[in-house]
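Running log. JK asked me to keep both predictions on one page so they can be read side by side. First protein, sequence followed by its tokens:
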Amino acid sequence: MRTERRALLLSAAAALLVGSVGVTVALVSNSRAILLDGMFNLTYFLVALVSVRVAHLAQQPGDEAFPRGYSYFEPLINAGKGLLILGVSAVALADSLAALVTGGREILAGLAIAYAAFATIACSVTCLLLYLIWRREPTPLIRADLENWLVNSVISASVLLAFALIPLAQRTEFSGITPYIDPVLVAAVVILCLGVPLKMAWRGIMELLDRAPPEHVTRPLRQAVDDVLAPLPVRQRYIRIVRPGRTVFVTAHVVLPEDFPVESLGRLDQIRHQLDTALRGIQPRLITDVLFTADERWAAPKSGIASR
């Protein structure tokens, strides 16, 4: 928990630093590419502060207000991050297209190059530090920040390369293209990097909608349930798995014969304990719900409104 908090605070501090410098330099240099980078980071700084709070909530158990706990706050914040980045990107893309139509814009190349070099170093160092932390504590919030800084590093390096072309072009017969470098750069960066915020938002929204996690997550859990239930005369079993954020919810509905001998409730609790232990060996952050019934209607998938 402390490691994750430090990682998120590091991300927030880096976003504030790069964003503040970026907006200041953009106002002086007249570069929309730098303004995009600065606004991107300041927006992310505000979201990062919320992430610190969400990281604490995600560790808390359920209560009367949130019976299933606070794990759904993680995909909510990650979906919000992705959508915010998409919003900033859309505004920047529209501005760059307008600039291209109206003849481009001149920028102070020297100042722009200096900022791009600073941003590339700052983003790359932050990305590396987050990667090292994520290797030790691979939580969804750290992963989202790591993906953000990876994109940020690529953007900054691309901006640096493009800005370096301006003084070179000014010394050649291609000097007429220099007003177009900044808006073309903004459009190219937005288009090429759209995949990361789209995936981030999509993954968060799907988790909020309780979509089942990927097969590589569900397969070993289903196998563990089947292994524990193997000695029992199971007529049918239904396993439902969702993973909002870092917590996995496994619901197993087991249909047994009507004449299955149950000496005591303790016997069923013993099976539940075996299931829980086996599943936690695969996913430590787990909530298990096991129901035994002889009537399949209490186990089979239903619409939620119709009953038999």
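And the second, directly underneath as requested:
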Amino acid sequence: MSTLIKNLQGLLVYIAVAYTIAYLMDIPVILKIVEMKYVPLILAARMYAPFLAVITVIVLTRKPILRELKELGIRLSTKNLKYFFIGAGVPYAVYALGTLYAYLLGFRVVNPIAELPLAKMFGPITVLITTLVGTYVAAITINTAFALGEEIGWRGYLYILLRPKFGTTLSSIIIGTIWALWHAPLILFLGYNYPHHRDIVGLGMFILICSVWSYIMLYLREVSGSVLPAATMHGAINALAGLMKLTVDIEDELYSMPVGMLSLLASLTVAIIVATIPRTKVLTSSSK
């Protein structure tokens, strides 16, 4: 059996397991069988469906699990430590650029925490800065721990499988599409990220966003040889999502941040900058 066929089988198994686990977890949420207070726990556990899919593929290939996980990028060393922190900083650049573009386009930009009691007590700028620092700490700790459950699949297994054959750009589109469609039930049935667009429009925008983010994450994966910088970027996106949404006064999330047109333009700007940086491969895993 050719390596290509083996890889295709592995990809199909991975997608089937990752999607099945996640979609089954979506059912009680969509049908409102569980209480709302438990939904965040389900969504957090859902993030480890890709990890379980990777484990399934490894077990079926009868390879040592710990060795394979290390090869897929669960590693951190002094040589790539800086990318761990850079990854978490990327969404802040997207946030700043998105806010700038909003201002230039004439949208109303506000301090997202100005109305909080603490902001009135200590000053909105002071509290905003403190909040941004707090989100960064969350991004590189608890948020990274949860995001790693996805990243070992998206920027770990899929990177190793697709990058040698399709290159960075096409791999980013493929991975971004798989990543976005993995969220499809949440978007279409619950309005996740797009409460005004529970349809193909919202899903299409999310595919675009995930593809651009994947391009940046694959760069971090390639130069660091680790999925952890991609996980910190993913974690920071989740940490900043609330602030992004409240910073620009646009009712329709399709045009705002963190998953609308402003975010897409800002992320594309970062991706274009990344594309100009020479790719010096550091600690990259060998392709399977």
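Observation for JK regarding the second prediction: DSSP finds twelve helices and no strands in the chain.
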